[in-house]
Design brief:
alpha+beta, 2 domains, two-stranded antiparallel ribbon, 3 helices, 4 strands
Length: 79
């Protein structure tokens, strides 16, 4: 890492290609512990989402990652 980063504290995007061991560690951790296909979040306080959707305190919401990845610029989560 010292050979690539020198005295800098964080790498740039160009540096990641040279940090092969770090890249392999990240790839292995993603293999062992992959991202779940759904994001789950619990509301801490009551809120109102765009489109007038009301969310109560403690209410659980989920969102499929595959849906987010297929959104284009003309669509939003609420239309």
């Amino acid at each position: 890492m010292d050979a690539v980063l020198g005295d800098r504290l964080s790498p740039s995007m160009a540096d990641y290609g040279q940090l092969r061991y770090v890249l392999r560690c990240v790839n292995e951790s993603m293999r062992l512990y992959p991202h779940p296909p759904v994001l789950l979040r619990r509301a801490l306080v009551p809120d109102e989402l765009p489109g007038g959707y009301k969310v109560g305190s403690g209410q659980l919401g989920n969102l499929a990652k595959s849906f987010i990845q297929r959104l284009n610029r003309t669509h939003t989560l609420y239309s």
